[in-house]
Write a structure and sequence with these properties.
Elements (H helix, E strand, L loop, with lengths): L1 H35 L1 H12 L5 H10 L6 E3 H6 L2 E3 L6 E14 L5 E16 L3 E3 L15 H13 L3 E5 L7 E3 L3 E5 L4 H17 L9 H18 L5 H10 L4 H6 L1 H16 L9
Parallel strand pairs: 6-8
Antiparallel strand pairs: 1-4, 2-5, 3-4, 7-8
Bound molecules: zinc ion.
The site of zinc ion has 4 residues, from α6 and α7.
């Protein structure tokens, strides 16, 4: 009798939602703990000293030193306790210099003319310097195996028409969401690959086209939270990595709670798809 089945399905959904909420509570606390730590504060202090370069200068830096990670002027490096190595060639960028001068007009009044000119200055990448270690917040990879979870998430991706390419990705992120296809760096343990795949599946579901305005920080917070919930549900705890990742993308418990429904719904869809193969997904 179908009526007997209904309450149990409902109860199951309710229990799952409770479980998702509980794990997100745990994650929110962990993210705030990272943010409150001394290491994180020191890290932000140092980050604040690095200038945010204009789009044009960022391009110049990329062209001259594509592997640059942290760039600053000679004097900023000295203040951070690091010395540019002898013989290192600087990266040329343009620094805006405002100018102003006064002249007398035909009627004898004093007029001020002003503008901006750009002068070439040189900056250096951290790899060109020696000295004190910069404070960092490490985001450790998940090094446990999760072969079944990885196979299940791959099946979910395929059922959603998303092709997954497992391949070595060098430097930077461990994966990419490319709207209809996903890259996963296969140089890590299957636990890490599962976490990456769940993260990219969340981007695919939430962060393309008409899915609303959001910042990159918010997109990363949502995707990583979904991945954390999904992995934890299947017994893979990624808290250390996920909480630091979210904190580094400027997320906190407040932002996490503001996105709770989107995160919980997306995580539930993935969990349901893993647990009920062949079941039709509800189209929102
Ligand atoms: Zn991402």
């Amino acid at each position: 009798m179908p009526s007997l089945l209904k309450p149990s399905t409902k109860d199951k959904a309710k229990a799952l939602r409770q479980r998702i909420d509980d794990s997100l509570d745990g994650l929110a606390k962990a993210v705030d703990d990272v943010r409150a730590s001394e290491t994180f504060r020191q890290f932000l202090d140092v980050q604040a000293r690095f200038h945010k370069y204009s789009w044009h200068n960022t391009l110049l830096i990329c062209m001259q030193r594509p592997d640059a990670t942290q760039v600053a002027g000679y004097r900023t490096w000295l203040k951070l306790g690091r010395q540019v190595r002898k013989g290192e060639g600087g990266i040329m960028i343009f620094a805006p210099c405002p100018w102003k001068h006064e002249k007398e007009s035909d009627t004898g009044e004093t007029e001020t003319e002003q503008g901006i000119y750009f002068k070439a200055v040189h900056v250096f990448d951290v790899a060109q310097t020696d000295g004190d270690e910069l404070p960092t917040v490490s985001v450790p990879t998940v090094d446990s195996a999760a072969d079944d979870l990885l196979a299940n998430l791959l099946r979910v991706a395929e059922s959603r028409g998303i092709a997954v390419d497992f391949r070595p990705v060098s430097g930077g992120p461990f994966g990419a969401s490319k709207h209809g296809s996903i890259d996963v760096d296969n140089q890590h343990a299957t636990g890490q690959q599962s976490k990456t795949l769940a993260h990219e599946l969340a981007h695919e579901a939430l962060h393309w086209e008409d899915k609303g305005p959001f910042t990159r920080s918010l997109a990363e917070l949502e995707a990583e939270s979904v991945a954390y919930v999904v992995c934890l549900h299947f017994g893979l705890d990624t808290e250390v990595r996920s909480s630091r990742y979210i904190a580094l993308w400027d997320g906190d418990s407040k932002a996490l709670r503001a996105s709770l429904e989107r995160i919980a719904d997306t995580a539930r869809d993935i969990i349901d798809d893993v647990e009920a193969p062949g079941a039709k997904r509800q189209v929102a």
